[in-house]
Amino acid sequence: MTKALVRIQHTSMQFSDSVAQHKSDAKKVFDRAVEKDVWAMTGTEAGVNKRNHDLHDALVAEAKSHGFFIQAHPTGEWVALNRKHLTNFKKGFEGPFIQGTAGSGRDASEGAHAPRGVAWASGTAKSFRLGRLTFGSAHYLTNRSEAVSGSNQPLINGIANWARQAGKGANVVFLGADTNTNDKRGDVFNGKPLTSISDELKKWPPTLGTTTYIDVIASYDHDGRVRAKSYNVYNDKQFPLATDHYLLDAVYEITERAVAKKA
Q: Distances in Å between the alpha carbon of 143 and those of 19, 181, 198, 210, 226?
């Protein structure tokens, strides 16, 4: 069976950065995606409100100029798919599984936050029989926001239900997320059927600072044709960005679907 190597890149952005920083980061992550032949990109904190939507706009512009289809949802989660490798695109948003709070985007220091759900985009591979590939992005609440709105469990449950639906049959599902939860210490999906590539490969590079492991790229457990091949995180010395999070790079191997034999 032929196997495809699918590279996924995740970047948790920083909503509060300046217009110039947003524009620079958007260009850098798309430049790298083209250079490294990335199939899909996921990210967070590119929301839209009356005061701030420049990161959203910059990502949409860079996606167009770099040959990517993009789902940049107003709540901040975004997914971009490389037209070189994928076609027949669809996009959507599942949720919100946690409602937003008053002051979201204005006073996050007090725990205010946007609604939380899963922004997703999907496509079919141009050169391989892989089924429909769906990529999602999610952003868990911080500890401070949990104190305001309660547990992340409704979002975790929603992610699992979304993955089950999108991963039916021969379809394949991946998720990029800022989980605001220590992935090295425990399962950020609380037993639900997704596994971070760190857990699969038993490799936990920090994704923010030197001891923080909160950003993940994950696959749906029931995708039997999917195997993690490599995973790296690039810190500010290796790939400088204005955002406080680092860039994640994952490679998965997907085995082609078997061709039904003619009777």
A: 27, 9, 22, 19, 33
Domain assignment of residue 27, given as a range: 3-255
Per-residue pLDDT, 165: 98
Q: What is the pLDDT of residues 190-247, one digit of tens each?
A: 999 999 999 999 999 999 999 999 999 999 999 999 999 999 999 999 999 999 999 9
CATH number at residue 166: 3.60.10.10
Q: What is the pLDDT of residue 251?
A: 98
Query: Are 219 and 197 contacting, i.e. CB atoms less than 8 angstroms apart?
Result: yes
- What b-and-e string marks burial along 161-176, b requiring 16 or more CB atoms within 10 Å of the CB? ebbeebbeeebbbbbb
Q: CA-CA distance, 98 to 105, in Å (whole number)?
A: 15
Three-class SS state of 186? coil
Structure tokens given for 56? 């959203």
Instruction: Confirm if 96 and 223 have CB atoms less than 8 A apart.
Output: no
User: The tokens 């009356």 sit on which residue?
Assistant: 50
At 106 the pLDDT is: 45
Residue 125 is predicted with a pLDDT of 98
Q: Residue 246: CB partners within 8 Å, gap ≥ 6?
A: 206, 207, 208, 215, 233, 234, 235, 236, 239
Look up tokens 């996606």; give the residue.
63
What is the CA 37 to chain-centroid distance, rounded? 17
Residues of the chain with pLDDT under 70: 102-110, 260-263
When divided into structural domains, the chain yields a total of 1
